[in-house]
Amino acid sequence: MILLPEQCRAARALLDWSQERLASLADVSRSTIRGFEGGHHDLHATTEAQIVKTFEAAGIRLLPDGENGPGVRLKRPK
């Protein structure tokens, strides 16, 4: 799965997370998150995997690019 900057921002918004919090939980630098979300650079595959794993653990489901474009969904607790 390729994480898009827009999905990253949307997922953080759904979780009410700052860039600092995501960076801390995913064990990456805040400047990496800031640069990626700002469209200044792509993520390395391992960094992307860490961020996606962190989002998934928090209940985020990343939706692939489909008819309505890529998206983000927050899973409801069971």
Question: Can you describe what's shown?
Answer:
With about 80 residues, the chain is mostly helical. It contains 4 helices and 2 strands, in the order ααααββ. It has helices at about 5-15, 20-25, 30-35, 45-55; strands spanning about 60-65, 70-75. Strands 1-2 form a two-stranded antiparallel sheet. β1 and β2 (about 70-75) form a beta hairpin. α2 (about 20-25) packs across α4. The longest helix has 13 residues, at about 45-55. It is globular. The model has no long low-confidence stretch (mean pLDDT about 95).
Strand content: 5-15%
Shape: globular
Provide a count of the helices. 4
User: Roughly what percent helix?
Assistant: 40-55%
Radius of gyration: 12 Å
Structural class from helices and strands? mainly alpha
Largest sheet: 2 strands, antiparallel
**Ranges with pLDDT <50 over ≥5 residues?**
none
Q: Mean pLDDT, as a whole number? A: 93
SSE run: HHHHEE
Number of E-state strands: 2
- Kindly, what is the distance between the CA atoms of the first and last residues, rounded to a whole number of angstroms? 25 Å
Sheet with most strands: strand arrangement? 1-2
